[in-house]
Amino acid sequence: MTAVVHVLATRPDAVTLAPVVAALERQGSLRQYLVHTGQHSGAAMVDDVLADVGLRAPDVQLGAGEGSHAAQSARAMEAVEPALAELRPAAVVITGASNSAVGVAITAAGMGVPVARLEAGLREHDWTVPEEVNRVLLDSTADTLFASSEQAVANLQAERVGEGRVHLVGSTAVDTLRLAEDGARRRETWLRYGLAAGHYALVTLHRPANVDDDEQLARIVEGLAQLARRVPVVFPIHPRTRERLSAMGDEERLRAAGVRCTPPLRYGEFLSLELGAGAVVTDSGTVQEETSALGVRCFTLRASTERTATLAHGTNTLLGDDPRELADVRLQPADPVRHELPHWDGHAGARVAALLVERYAERSATTAEPPSG
Length: 373
What we know:
Blueprint: E1 3-8, H1 11-27, E2 31-36, H2 43-52, E3 60-61, H3 69-87, E4 91-94, H4 99-110, E5 115-120, H5 130-141, E6 144-147, H6 150-159, E7 166-168, H7 172-187, E8 201-204, H8 208-211, H9 214-230, E9 233-236, H10 239-248, H11 250-256, E10 260-262, H12 267-276, E11 279-282, H13 285-294, E12 298-300, H14 308-312, E13 316-318, H15 348-360
Parallel strand pairs: 1-2, 1-4, 2-3, 4-5, 5-6, 6-7, 8-9, 8-11, 9-10, 11-12, 12-13
């Protein structure tokens, strides 16, 4: 049976890939392998979310780890080459915009293995953002491009990337959300923190532009402390963010201001807090999609966003990169109204799976050999 390889590097990648893997499993025409690059590691960031979204343990671990863009990409390139030569897939499915995903995509293309790209066409139009460079590289490398929104399709058309190979499928992350939504609502995780639905702000921040710059992070801490004086704040802290906060002594400052700081939460627990929040403050692309699909007010602490559909059709407000704008965060205590964004109907994974079968199920995998010379 012809095989495909799914590549995940980060926690959100698992959320995006899970509906595609499930749909292909039901279809039964392609053998599937799961390759984890290792850019995120540990139970909280990988193992738990895999279990929560119904993905099995990865078949291959590349061990790309942390480090610079070049180091992560290079380690992924070196490790994935023998894996692809052994598995001989007809295609490699890649999502996200991680450094290690770029390394895998370049290696696959060099070995003659087509790359199928989820989340294609997302653009911030800001070349100072490392993820933007990765998005363009991944889309340029891809043989098939699956776009989540009409705006993403327009970006690809404007760049003349993948002409004739672009497919508007919707957001697979929303598929995962819809499957878990009812259970997350019944969980009522906000009660664990003594909170009432609609009467707290949920915060998640992890992007290097926000947490790797000491001055910016100090301003964010001050902004969140000010916010916590007005409304209850829950802050599940990403490991890279906690490392920076601990180094500066700012986690204790947040706790002293009343911020409820927690370790990373499992997918269902975090989704439950999203459902109950009166507002969400984030720099995560996936969270922008989730909140818009749920109808929960979202404030994005970034200068730009690649999820422009959430600005046009959803509940997302772009604050910019000045943490003083956190003063504008206001709760929406009324019951949220679900937004039905175009093609965000819970069936994106099935559309992707059908196209993967159509394009690759009968393809020979003989080209998956290490390049010579």
